[in-house]
């Protein structure tokens, strides 16, 4: 329950709405209480007329007035309930917005490690479920709980006024019912958690499959995917059976006990009326009051049920919110004069803390401002990891990564990343227009700046050829563009960012030669005057850099200029020899180093 209160404290701006909803609920409850008295009074008038104690015409006049009073109370109650319902809807929508944006904001600032270990679909499914269940509960609670509370209290007081044993019996029902319900809820929660885990796994896979549909089709795995998906849901159905059987069995017992108590209450009312202790009008009032008291007790099951879901949902929600965010309060990064732009000092790193062997093991190198450095090594040798650490996506396990003389571990990560433009191996594009994709680093860039960046990336030509030019909408993940076009848009994005450090993960897939030449030329231009770190997949690129770092088993094997390393007999020299050999075997070995040509 404390997590629910936490949610309420999350959105203090909604307090006026809660108050408004509570006030309208109280008013609606009070208006509803008028009905039994009006009907009771009308009954007494009619009984008096039938018994000949008053004239029929007096009775009819009174009954007409009472009917009008009934109508007025109902009209007022309808108005109040409608306004309260409207406020409830607005509150729920605003709550959903607040909770979703908090979650998204937090997610956007979680360390990369979180995303490595959590499926996208699971993140989305959790968010949807938590927030839907929380808002549904809050809406039901604010629209009904106060009405229920007021009705219950009023019924207790009024029945005590008529005959105290009625109130005592009623007063016992509520806590006992609540207690029984709460007892069932602990077991219910365990099942709910298990069900949610199954649904999240299925949703995670679902999102993966949708994103990689061509692979699923190419390997004819639609059936397997569907079966796996259905299995998770079958498990959820099986769990629901147990959970629901238990819940409804307990609920049946609760209701049975409740009905027994209400049966006793009605019996007492009838007997006392027969004995002449209550008038027929009193009896009518009391019977209606009892019916009104039954309502909250019955709704309590739903309230507890939705509260349970909300508690489970808010646990999931806070589990994500409690994950520590990336550091954004570190020092800003002044470009230290004379310091190397990038320096790795004895860096050791493993993605998995329990790994037997680190991915990087005592890696050290310097890159001076404006120089180009290439990383060469077998596939999986840790080249991309070097760039990941430079961007602060993961913290170094030991040693230090420095940018312009500042330890990355102490710096503000946003400030660090502002200094680095990255062209990823896979050009990641978003759905939207070409312009939006290029201007991703600087959404405020002018059209002229966007165009200049596209020109520098040799992309202007094909963009202009689109029907809508720069306003051409490209599909999700850039599906409507060729590989080379996507890459040039990614390069244009880096050009527009205009950062002093460039990280370039060369594409491992060979593009057709013309396209490749254009991408290469664009990258060459981009590197001019910038400190460039390149994960190289082409010997031509490697040949043109200032320094080569060769990596083997996570350690630096050699560092030197291309000419030096060409003679040293190390990895680079071997790669050159393999290229010259040109045999099938040699090509295979080159591929193990991710070298395409
Ligand atoms: N996010 C991650 N979580 C766990 N392990 C990872 C992660 N990324 C990479 N690895 C592992 O770290 C090692 C180094 O990977 P890295 O991507 O740096 O290699 P690479 O030299 O760039 O390879 P390639 O040339 O094939 O791209 C590999 O063994 C890989 O399995």
TrEMBL record:
Source organism: Micrococcus cohnii
Protein location: Cell membrane
Membrane topology of this protein: Multi-pass membrane protein
Domain ABC transporter: 342-578
GO MF annotations in UniProt: ABC-type oligopeptide transporter activity; ATP binding; ATP hydrolysis activity
Residue spans crossing the bilayer: 21-43, 63-87, 137-156, 162-180, 252-271
Organism superkingdom: Bacteria
UniProt-recorded name of the protein: ATP-binding cassette subfamily B protein
Residue ranges annotated for the ABC transmembrane type-1 domain, each copy included: 19-309
GO cellular component annotations of the record: plasma membrane
């Amino acid at each position: 329950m404390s997590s629910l209160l936490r949610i309420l404290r999350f959105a203090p701006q909604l307090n006026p709405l809660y108050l408004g909803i509570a006030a309208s609920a109280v008013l609606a409850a009070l208006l509803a209480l008028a009905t039994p008295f009006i009907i009771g009074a009308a009954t007494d008038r009619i009984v008096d007329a039938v018994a000949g104690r008053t004239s029929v015409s007096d009775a009819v006049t009174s009954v007409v007035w009472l009917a009008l009073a009934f109508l007025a109370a109902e009209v007022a109650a309808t108005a109040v309930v409608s306004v309260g319902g409207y406020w409830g809807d607005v509150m729920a929508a605003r709550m959903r917005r607040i909770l979703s944006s908090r979650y998204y904001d937090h997610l956007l600032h979680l360390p990369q490690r979180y995303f490595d270990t959590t499926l996208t679909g699971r993140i989305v499914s959790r968010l949807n479920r938590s927030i839907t269940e929380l808002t549904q509960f809050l809406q039901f609670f604010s629209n009904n709980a106060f009405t229920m509370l007021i009705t219950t209290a009023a019924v207790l007081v009024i029945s005590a006024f008529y005959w105290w044993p009625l109130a005592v019996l009623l007063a016992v029902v509520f806590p006992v019912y609540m207690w029984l319900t709460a007892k069932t809820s602990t077991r219910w929660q365990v099942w709910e958690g298990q069900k949610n885990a199954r649904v999240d796994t299925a949703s995670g896979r679902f999102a993966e499959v949708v994103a990689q549909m061509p692979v699923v089709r190419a390997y004819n795995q639609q059936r397997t995917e569907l079966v796996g998906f259905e299995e998770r849901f079958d498990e959820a159905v099986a769990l629901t059976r147990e959970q629901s059987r238990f819940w409804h069995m307990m609920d049946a017992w609760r209701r049975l006990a409740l009905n027994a108590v209400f049966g006793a209450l009605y019996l007492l009312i009838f007997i006392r009326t027969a004995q002449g202790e209550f008038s027929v009008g009193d009896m009518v009032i009391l019977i209606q009051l009892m019916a009104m008291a039954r309502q909250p007790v019955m709704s309590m099951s739903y309230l507890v049920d939705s509260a349970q879901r909300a508690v489970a949902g808010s646990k999931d929600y806070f589990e994500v919110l409690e994950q520590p965010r990336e550091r954004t309060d570190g020092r800003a990064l002044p470009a230290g004069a004379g310091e190397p732009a990038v320096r790795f000092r004895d860096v050791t790193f493993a993605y998995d803390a329990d790994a037997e062997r680190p991915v990087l093991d005592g890696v050290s190198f310097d890159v001076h401002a404006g120089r180009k450095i290439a990383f060469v090594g077998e596939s999986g040798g840790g080249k991309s990891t070097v760039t990941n650490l430079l961007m602060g996506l993961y913290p170094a396990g030991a040693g230090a990564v420095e940018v312009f003389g500042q330890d990355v571990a102490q710096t503000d990560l946003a400030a660090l990343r502002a200094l680095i433009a990255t062209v990823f191996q896979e050009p990641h594009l978003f759905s939207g227009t070409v312009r939006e994709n290029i201007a991703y680093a600087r959404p405020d860039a002018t059209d002229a700046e966007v165009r200049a960046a596209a020109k520098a990336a040799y992309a202007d030509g094909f963009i202009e050829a689109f029907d809508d030019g720069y306003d051409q909408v490209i599909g999700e993940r850039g599906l409507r563009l060729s590989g080379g076009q996507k890459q040039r848009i990614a390069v244009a994005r880096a050009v527009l960012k205009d950062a002093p450090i460039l990280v370039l993960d060369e594409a491992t897939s060979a593009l057709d030669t013309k396209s490749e030449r254009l991408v290469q030329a664009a990258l060459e231009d981009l590197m001019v005057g910038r400190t460039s770190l390149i994960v190289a997949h082409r010997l031509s690129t490697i040949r043109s850099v200032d320094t080569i770092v060769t990596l083997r088993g996570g350690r630096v094997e050699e560092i030197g200029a291309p000419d030096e390393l060409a003679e040293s007999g190390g990895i680079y020299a071997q790669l050159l020899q393999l290229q010259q050999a040109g045999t099938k075997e040699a090509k295979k070995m080159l591929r193990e180093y991710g070298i395409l040509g």
